[in-house]
């Protein structure tokens, strides 16, 4: 019979127990999970029931084994249905790719992939369409992160809000981002920058933020043009940021980034100046 809580807190990158004790508790959690989950995760393009995966789900579910078990098994079923071929193909999300709104720029100074959404180009879509596209984008962050031997398992998100209008106002879309992170990519978000938010976005955030987990909400940072040097450039190299964000790089569309990742041409992500334009 599985216990309800892990006896001590396991936090990413922090040793509060001996390695042996942590491994024993992770094994206990692993043994509680349906054996089919590992194969479902791998078939869906994920790592399977690695210790890192187990830790992420436990931490995200506040060390409650029963909750973490139920949610991880639900996620594995979801992944096997929605990503049966290990990756969402471009044809499945072409309507969103046509907006040319998501860009995978490279790594921040800590080795975390950086994804930027150009919100003024966003056209609201139905929930099923936008959810699949969000998964496609977050999967690209995961794949890029896996090319970095020192990756800590996190990534950076940014909503570039300059020029946002009522035409881009989308409660369903914004809520879907956080729902996807919480339900299917737990403990992946390091920070979400909201850059140059206009008043209309504050109204949108007021509607959506109550549905965002309090721990995730603390990772949301409003940034303004005057803060670019002290906030953005402090953590993200100028070489991977476009000129609009005070950088010297170019925008790199997520579709182009996926192509580079699949080709194994990942050196470009560490060099900036990708040679692609928005």
TrEMBL record:
Q: What is the lineage of its organism?
A: Eukaryota, Viridiplantae, Chlorophyta, core chlorophytes, Chlorophyceae
According to the record, the segments passing through the membrane are none
PROSITE patterns attached here?
CRAL_TRIO
Q: Which Gene3D superfamilies match?
A: CRAL-TRIO lipid binding domain
- What is the protein name for this chain? CRAL-TRIO domain-containing protein
**A Pfam family the protein falls into:** CRAL_TRIO
The residues covered by the CRAL-TRIO domain are: 90-253
